[in-house]
Design goal:
Number of domains: 1
Order of helices and strands: HEEHE
Structural class: alpha+beta
Length: 87
């Protein structure tokens, strides 16, 4: 499915800041930024990615912060009462 078709189905750009513990040095935290189209508030795509992370990667998750934005918005109209004529 194309990104545009997904946006029409309420998928919006989602960014997650994933903070995890480094496998060799658990006292240190590392940041990973993830971005994809996803549906709020369930975030199935992000949950699938985090499940993959916990199953296959050594770095234990510490915190995940999510930012979500709409990509397709209604057009904004402003009416102007002035007319300008150029020759």
């Amino acid at each position: 499915m194309s990104d545009f078709a997904r946006q029409l189905e309420d998928y919006r750009i989602t960014t997650a800041e994933i903070i995890y513990r480094m496998p060799d040095h658990p006292a240190f935290l590392q940041t990973y930024l993830w971005q994809d189209l996803d549906v709020a508030p369930e975030f199935p795509v992000l949950k699938k990615f985090l499940d993959f992370w916990e199953r296959n990667l050594d770095g234990k998750l510490f915190k995940v912060r999510i930012a979500h934005s709409e990509l397709i918005k209604p057009a904004e109209f402003r009416f102007n009462a002035n007319v300008l004529t150029l020759h």
